[in-house]
Amino acid sequence: MWLNVKSSEPLSGHAAWEERLRMGLSRNEIDDMADNVYYTAQAGRLALEIASLRRRSRGLLTGELLLFLAFIAFLALYTIVDLGELPLVLSLLSLLLYFLVRYMDVRNNSDIISLTDLRQVYLDELEAGQGHFGCFDAGERYVDSRHPFTYDLDIFGKDALFNRMSRCVTTSGSDRLADYLSFARIRYQAEAIETLSKEEAWRARFISLGQQGRIDTGAILESVRGMQGVGIPPVLGSKPVFLSAWILLLAFWGVMALSVFGVVEAGVPFLWGSVQFLLVFFLSSKYLKSVSSSADVLKRSVSRLLLLMRHTRTLAGVPAGCRPLFRQLDEALDSFSGLDKIVRMLDRRGNVLGLFLLDALFLSDIFLVRKCVRWQRAYVGHMGEWVDAMSEMDALVSMATFRYNHPRTSYAEVLDSDELVYEAHGLRHPFLGERAVSNDFTISDNHYYMITGANMAGKSTFLRAVGVNYVLARNGMPVFADALKVSRYRLFSSMRTTDDLAHGISYFNAELLRLRQLIESLPPTGATLVILDEILRGTNSLDKLNGSRLFLEHISRRHVSGIIATHDLELSKMESARFHNYCFEIGLDESVTYSYKIAPGVARNQNATYLLRQMLEESALP
Question: Where residue 230 falls among pLDDT bands split at 50, 70, 90?
């Protein structure tokens, strides 16, 4: 979004682009500036609001102190000086005003916390705009060197794709996003992502609800399962018990009223209340103790998850594909509202004196047990699917924010074809920003592309650009290309093999194991794209050449297409109707120049000897 200078209102869509173009900015400059200007403006606006609320907080705190002193002073005046009932009335009025101001102070402090969290969202986005992603989840727990492609393509880990994308508020939302990026779960959701990307204020508020720490939905489900396992007798939730409790309670308060008017002795309601407490304690204490131990972890998590669900319902334009998801979240709201009330009531039981008074005067635990029984019966069986729906929403918010932060991206066309299709125009690597060089490239079914070039010429970066953009495309996420058309196929890469000396696995052995994993993972039907960077680099040149040829000839007999980066120019001699040569050429003159543009043919220039000679000449200077 962009700000209208005259009105200070945010602009969006074509109006924003026209405003920026009138300023004489290029497309790249526009994309660089737009989000940063908007985020800076929002952070500045919120800073002013927070400062105003803090000033108000100081005023309210002063008012609380003065009103409390007034309450004490008027009460003392009433006992010392005979001025009638006026000091007492003023004392009570001061107390009422104290509670009112106290309530306003609590609300004001809550607003400060809420706006501070929201401002932090914008500050974090500004950091991300500068290439610093340390404030976001890196997803290192998802790193798996044996995964078919995530380890090689930098999907998880510091500064990786997940780290740049994730704004997840819940632990299960992070898991869902990780599943999408690793193909453990695939769903094409471009419409929902595009719609939510336009709801910047709504998304920012959603993300701000996770600033106090991610909501552990796994722990919530574990606690719910523990509560479900508490065998509360169904009779305690029945209507006869409910009606009996109300009759007993009304009778007790009737006796209390009679004792006030002296009809019955004062000891009768006291004895009655004590018996009521013992009865309630006997009927419910064991079950509530078990429920409470299971629900202890829910005290903070459920209320925050409930806030998240309530905020989700405020979205005005629900994408058509998300309507079933929103219906599920609507159904979940009653469940989590009930659970939140139960958890709050259980928390109040920690005060022994309060527990005695609540049970003796109001039969509180009887009604609490009934709530637990009815909640178990109505909602427990659906909790998993409702948390799953919240996880989906959480992941979508992260994807939509990613789209918003990268306006130069587009959506791929995903074909339903048995053949492998990959047609890219203006393809670039997502991590390079304005330094990225665009390339056009097409991969045909059952064809192989040998890519040669000097060190640092861009081979590995290009391979990763091909792979990462396919991961994005398959999930309906924005891709870093002017246009991209792909079909659905399996993806496997071998680019970052490492040894494991602790388990006696040498580098060469690790390479063989990775290639064996590739062969064993090939499905009997369906296409596969393999992305390989320097096959068998752990052995001598001749052995490497022969082994690479043997491996490529073997997989070429399967429904496999491949991109293979290599320094071994002899592999280029495999060129045929299905094996093609491409290269990243460099220029060698007074210095090395890199175009990072892919072109047909075999690389002629290499830079290792050139750069080493230059280094030795420089080191020889006096």
Answer: confident
